[in-house]
Amino acid sequence: DQVVQPLKPLMRVATEEDAAVCASNEEKEKEAFQICLEKIKKHGLEMKLIDSEYTFDRNKLLFYFTADGRIDFRELVKDLASVFHTRIELRQIGVRDETKMLGGIAICGRPLCCHSYLSDFVPVSIKMAKEQNLSLNPAKISGVCGRLMCCLKNEQEAYEHLNRSLPHIGTKTTTPEGYPGEVQSVSVLRQLVKVVFTNDNGEKEVREYPVAELQFDQKKNFGKNIPQQILPDEKLDEEELIALEELSQEEELIDEEDKPEQAKRNRNNRSNNRRRSSGNRRNEYPNNRERGSNNTRERNGNSNRDHGGSNNRESNNRDHNNNGG
C-alpha cells in the first residue's frame, strides 16, 4: 500500500476524554452546518454546502462547498465568525472531492473507491477505456461524480502488458495450418485472436487461435497502439458523442490543474529528503566537525606564533641598532 506523505506527527494515544471531545465536536458540526445553510440563503450566494468540520481544539471551523465559479464570501465569513466566535475557513472543492466526502454506491454495487480506500485521485483518460475494450458511452464509464470512473486505473497496467503481445485488427498472419489470413478480433484477457482466411474449398472461415501459435510478418507495431477491438454496442448518437468529447476535455483540464500542485508536492518531498539526508550525514560524522574546528584553531595558533616570532626578531634588531648607534 502506498503511504501518502507527509504524515502528521503522532502526539499520543487517544483517551476516553479525547473520544468524548470528538463526539461533542460532531454534534457541534451538525449545528454549524444548519446555521451556515441559513446564512448562505440569507446572503443569496450560489454555492452548495457539502460538509462542516471542527478542529479538535475548536480553534477553527471549516466549511466545504462547491460552486460553478468564484464566490465572494467575505461577508459570510464575518457573519459566521460573529456567531461561532472562532476562526472560519471556507474551502471550495470539486465534484470528485464532494463524492469522496459524501460516499455512495458505485455502478458495480460496491462502495465508491474514492470514499472507501483511495487516498488521492489518479489521472484517468478515455484511452484507458479504449485499451480495456469498454464501451465509450459516457453513461457507462462515468462515476457518480460525473467524471471518468477511478477504477479504470486499477487494471490499466495489466491491459497495457497484455496488449503488447496482441496484433491490430487487419494485421496479416499465417495460421498453424499454413493458411494466410487476417486478424478479425482479439481477446485481451484470454490472449486469443480470431483469424479470417480462405480454406481449401475457397470459402471464408473464421477460427480462434492463441496468439503464440500464429505467425506474423512484422511485430514492430505490437503494443504501441490500441488493438482496435470491435465493440458490439459502440454505436453512439450525436448527443453521446458530444458528451464524450466534453468528458475528455474536462479530464484534460483537471490533469492540467493538478500538475502544478503535484509539482509543488514533488519539490517539497525532494527538499525534505535533502534536509533529512544532510541531517543524517551530520549525525553520522560529528567528530569531523570537531576535528575540522580543531585543525582551524591549530592553524590560526601557528600563524599567530609565526607572526609573534617575527615581530620579536624585528624588535630585537631595532634595539641592537639603537645601542650600536
Summed up, what is this model?
The chain is an alpha+beta fold and 325 residues long. It has nine helices and eight strands. Among the domains are: 76 residues, K homology (KH) domain (GMP Synthetase, Chain A, domain 3, 2-Layer Sandwich), CATH 3.30.300; 82 residues, no CATH class; 51 residues, SH3 type barrels.
Could you please describe the fold and organization of this structure?
The chain is of the alpha+beta class and 325 residues long. Among the domains are: 18-93, GMP Synthetase, Chain A, domain 3; 99-162 and 240-257, no CATH class; 167-217, SH3 type barrels (Roll), CATH 2.30.30.140. 48% of the residues lie in helices and 14% in strands. The strands form 2 sheets. It has a 5-stranded antiparallel β-sheet, with no helix packed on it. A 3-stranded mixed β-sheet has the order 1-2-3, sandwiched between helices. The N and C termini lie far apart (93 Å).
